[in-house]
Amino acid sequence: MSQPSAHAAPSESKGSKTLWQRLKKPLTVLFFLLLIVLFTLLARRIDWSEVFSTLADFKVRTLIIAAGLTLASFLVYACFDLIGRTYIRQDLGWRQILPVGIISYAFNLNLSAWVGGIAMRYRLYSRLGVSTGNIAKILGLSLATNWFGYMVLAGGVFASGVVQMPPGWKLSSSALQAVGVLLLLLSIGYLAACQFSRRREWAIRGVEINLPSLRMALLQLALGALNWSLMAAVIFTLLPGKLDYPVVLGVLLISSIAGVITHIPAGLGVLEAVFIALLQHEVSRGSLLAGLIAYRAIYFILPLLVALLMYLVVEAKAKALRIAKKPA
Question: What is this structure's pTM?
Fold first, then answer.
């Protein structure tokens, strides 16, 4: 029997990759078309007069509280990068770090992780003299802080059974509780690795990854969970008073995973669809949508405008510094 050619596997891999590249674009277009149909059907079932009247009835005090919680959330997220500064052991002041974190987060929320989380961080940190390898480490630690914080918080909320899934959904309430237990176990595993693992360093695509200390890992989980909690607090402030905060938090955590899976910038439509699907039996769709529209404006659009101004100021200062350094 003849032996298979040594080049057969690479050829098959290349062929399958080409097939996926051909299918990826039409499948993506089809997915977005299905979303448009879904949101159109959903929009027809919304009482838009109630939406507009609810938006008009928001009290200034409510909007100020929501804006304050948003500011607190952005500052907490920017502290992820302060952990990163300690992680890479680079002498950068907090006044240099916090603007980078705030700008990156605002662009990340609205324009995807590639623009905000990655491209913006690389540009801003390179101006501060941080090497490419260290920027990658800060980015990786920030992502870990966000999602391990998510795991420990979502694990507790899901496992508690606070969020009840509607009948007929593929994911039942008991299955959601099992997911919560799994997330808690993963969080505990991360902490155990940070405490007991003998191997502390890995190299992934040329980037050296160092396992943080248990103290730093606990700080990661605390800050990550706090940021998700503040996001939910903003939504809770803007939604009808009949809803309990733990329920709003749980639905936000579910919708966030749906937004990540769909890869839609800012999770447009996904957040609203999940909230309405899970909470429409408790409050009206119109009041839910009004609160979420206000949340979009306060947590997404307003910070993006502020971050854009901050970014322009940073670029102007960098340009002035380059001009000053030029020889006469």
Answer: 0.78
